[in-house]
């Protein structure tokens, strides 16, 4: 890359901040749509995958199922999923939401399973010996110890969904992807500006779930993990 190209690149990068100032309302509106889509996808993924993963981990069964779902989820590119659901559900919010849920389920399911399944069996046996029911063992012993790993899966899913939601514009789903995928209308500075906002949203989501993990996990568990 020559000096002229580097100068143009730096000029475009700094111009993106001018774009942010000049089009703050546009970016804010697209950000709300982006967050609405991403939050709905993560929430649905949690409702679907979290109880299933925790239950399978508690029973110590389903390792092949969770690993298979995780591998399939990683193998399917987000754009391909959106294209598939485009044919099934048409253009719009529901299409993109369904694709994002499919992408968010594998990390949540896998980490929910592993977080409970890897709890020290001696602790579980001791709890049973004390007369605790299976529900009490799950909620009082396994889940508190599982929270750090469990939240890792949620954080991965949230960052993945926020980043992939930029492709929503392909199927009319809105969000910041409307700017990122429309360089003709907004210019390269607009594309960079929207991409920076997506990066900030992903980092903010990761920090939020990290803070929730620290808030909900017993201090002794965090200290034992060096968190």
From TrEMBL:
Keyword set includes Transport: yes
Localization: Cell membrane; Membrane
Family: Belongs to the binding-protein-dependent transport system permease family.
InterPro entries: ABC_transp_perm/SBD, MetI-like, MetI-like_sf
Transmembrane segments: 37-58, 79-105, 145-172, 184-205
Ranges for domain ABC transmembrane type-1: 31-209
SUPFAM superfamilies assigned: MetI-like
Membrane topology: Multi-pass membrane protein
Name of protein: ABC transporter permease subunit
One Pfam family here: BPD_transp_1
PANTHER family found in the cross-reference section: GLYCINE BETAINE/L-PROLINE TRANSPORT SYSTEM PERMEASE PROTEIN PROW (PTHR30177), POSSIBLE OSMOPROTECTANT (GLYCINE BETAINE_CARNITINE_CHOLINE_L-PROLINE) TRANSPORT INTEGRAL MEMBRANE PROTEIN ABC TRANSPORTER PROZ (PTHR30177:SF33)
Record keywords: Membrane, Transmembrane, Transmembrane helix, Transport
GO biological process terms held by the UniProt record: glycine betaine transport; transmembrane transport
Species this protein is from: Streptomyces antnestii
Lineage: superkingdom: Bacteria
Cellular component terms per the entry's GO annotation: plasma membrane
